[in-house]
Amino acid sequence: MGTFKAIVIDKTETGQQVRSRDFDEADLMEGDVTVRVAYSTLNYKDGLALTGKAPVVRRFPMIPGVDLAGTVEHSSHPDFKLGDSVILNGWGLGETHLGAYAEKVRVRGEWLLHLPKGLTLQQTMAIGTAGYTAMLCLIAIERHGLRCHRGPAIVTGAAGGVGSVAISLLARAGWHVIASTGRPQEADYLKHLGAAEVIERSELTGPARPLGKERWCAGVDTVGSHVLANVLSMTKYGGAIAACGLAGGMDLPGSVAPFILRGVSLLGIDSVMTPRNFRLEAWSRLAHDLDLVKLEAMTTTITLDQVVDAGQAIMEGKVRGRIVVQIG
Ligand code: NDP
């Protein structure tokens, strides 16, 4: 056994230290599949881990990185063999289990999926947890029985990773997409992805009235707090909002009025522990439904050495779209 290059977070007396260093393969955690990582990505949660802004890291030392795409190097799991192309999103990677900002990971085979047909390893990481979560949101909205003829769909945190993919997916499914952003200078980018209208985040950041003017019948909210409360208060009768994020805060300062007077539903979305069959459905839908030209247009590629700075940037709301981390 040798060493490999990784980004490692160590606990210090004052907080945490993050650096690129050699990691001993013997110190990898338990698992029945070893993967040579080709690509990872940067999600909001990776930014939280890298900056220590929220306690997402549950053991130290930790290798952050919640997503990976790579090739099986060793396996004693019956479903995976040497040379298989695989992906992994969540399951505690980069939080409780040594993660993807590394040349190697050792994981439980049950967490892995075979590379979805129609996508390359690089494209799966351009999608990443952010894009796969956007698809979970769309599926939840559809399962609620909502389709595009019912009215517009709003996407908050529109220029971010989840937001960018959500806009592309909803627009491709025929929805009139209203993109809410704090970066109006990104209006052309958002329209290119499929937004029919771009509104200023400030329209949704004040205290929410119990009921506002009915503006949309569905939505993907990545922001939480006042923004989600306002989105709910402006949701049409019988509509539903898929809530997946907290970029603006974890609170929900609203009233029950949209639920009890308009029959509005709040659809909770968690990507980390999503069961395998639902993941397979989401990835198959992504492979078929996502416009790969738009995916490329929203994606920037960085190296492992640039991850720490990028983690800071995503916390400051400065990252547009998706970031792929090239490792192998
Ligand atoms: P990004 O940073 O790429 O996107 C978040 C966007 O939110 C920003 O681009 C910005 O959009 C907006 N934003 C940032 N800060 C604020 C603020 N203070 N107030 C209001 N809006 C703000 O992150 P991701 O797309 O990777 O993730 C988005 C959210 O979804 C995160 O909270 C993340 O934790 C969550 N998430 C949850 C998952 C789950 O399983 N439930 C899975 C994946 C992500 P703009 O500039 O356009 O306004």
Automatic annotation (TrEMBL):
It holds the Pfam family ADH_zinc_N. Residues 15-325 form the Enoyl reductase (ER) domain. CDD domains: MDR_yhdh. This is Oxidoreductase. It comes from Microvirga puerhi.
